[in-house]
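Below is a filled-in request sheet from our internal design queue. Each sheet records the structural input a requester submitted and the sequence that came back. We keep these sheets so that new team members can see what a complete request looks like end to end.

REQUESTER: design group, bay 2
PRIORITY: normal
MODE: inverse folding
CHAIN LENGTH: 317
BACKBONE (tokenized):
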């Protein structure tokens, strides 16, 4: 190594320069990476450093905050599920009532024609088997109803059915105009259900108020009453503003999640029962226009009635 002269640039051999670089790197490794404020010119953190700090902030979040977000998400999902189930329930109920009122007489006429045909054939042949079939066909025309059948259609989700009220008050039955309420009625119902749903209440008093209000909303929607739904919307908007949700303790949030899960299981069972019913299966055949499906079934029944009448006329000539 040559001795440097004063004031002159220091010169080193290649080996000495490599050793110097190693010493500088070791010094940096021991001291660590300098903070942004210590960097020349006050340089900002790079994306990697920012992501690292964001991850640290997320890791430091209180568990109650995460649970609260999970509860709110579960509440909204349950409300949407309940809206879907209630919408389908109203359609099934209205379709069943219209099906009975519009097509019931045709089914009765078919049963009567089947009995008349069987009796005419038995009278012509005198065969014991034909006589037995005629007796069975006649028994099907006016079967003796059971207790469950007598009272099954008297009560629906709103209490006494319109048919029961009409029978008790000697008033005429007003059938629903449509299987599915209008688009405007459905829109109003969804908005009210999302705003006033009881599951959004934090106190029992507020829950009771919401349950009473939603009961009235469901009844109006079941009748497809747009005017009443608009009045209920105005009534709710003018009511007291719900208190901001308070942060709950972990145990209460866990209990809330468990209740929401149980409620979802119950609604799932209700939805499955509706879908598996005969009326539910018919509605799935024409999800876009269930009212038209009734007209198609009526046309088919009328064709069967005409066919049976022609068959009966050929037997009695």
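RETURNED SEQUENCE:
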């Amino acid at each position: 190594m040559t001795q440097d002269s004063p004031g002159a640039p220091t010169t080193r051999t290649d080996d000495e320069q490599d050793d110097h670089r190693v010493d500088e790197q070791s010094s940096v490794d021991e001291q660590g990476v300098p903070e942004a404020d210590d960097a020349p010119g006050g340089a900002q953190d790079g994306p990697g450093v920012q992501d690292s700090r964001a991850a640290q902030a997320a890791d430091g979040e209180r568990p109650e905050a995460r649970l609260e977000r999970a509860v709110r998400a579960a509440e909204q999902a349950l409300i949407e599920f309940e809206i879907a189930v209630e919408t389908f329930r109203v359609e099934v109920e209205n379709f069943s009532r219209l099906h009975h009122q519009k097509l019931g007489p045709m089914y009765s006429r078919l049963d009567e024609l089947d009995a008349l045909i069987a009796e005419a054939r038995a009278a012509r042949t005198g065969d014991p088997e034909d006589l037995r079939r005629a007796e069975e066909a006649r028994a099907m025309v006016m079967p003796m109803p059971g207790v469950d059948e007598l009272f099954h259609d008297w009560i629906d989700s709103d209490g006494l059915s319109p048919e029961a009220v009409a029978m008790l008050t000697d008033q005429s039955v007003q059938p629903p105009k449509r299987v599915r309420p209008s688009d405007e009625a459905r829109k109003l119902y969804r908005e009210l259900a999302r705003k006033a749903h009881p599951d959004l209440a934090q106190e029992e008093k507020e829950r009771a108020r919401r349950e009473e209000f939603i009961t009235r909303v469901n009844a109006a929607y079941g009748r497809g009453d747009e005017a009443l739904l608009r009045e209920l919307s105005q009534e709710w908007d003018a009511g007291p503003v719900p208190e901001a949700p308070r942060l709950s303790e972990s145990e209460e949030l866990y209990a809330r999640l468990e209740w929401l899960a149980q409620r979802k299981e119950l609604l799932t069972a209700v939805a499955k029962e509706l879908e598996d019913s005969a009326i539910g299966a018919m509605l799935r055949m024409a999800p876009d226009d269930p009212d038209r499906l009734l007209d198609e079934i009526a046309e088919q029944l009328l064709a069967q009635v005409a066919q049976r009448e022609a068959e009966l006329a050929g037997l009695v000539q």
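SHEET NOTES:
- The longest strand covers residues 155-156.
- Residues 66 and 250 are 10 Å apart (CA to CA).
FILED BY: M.R.
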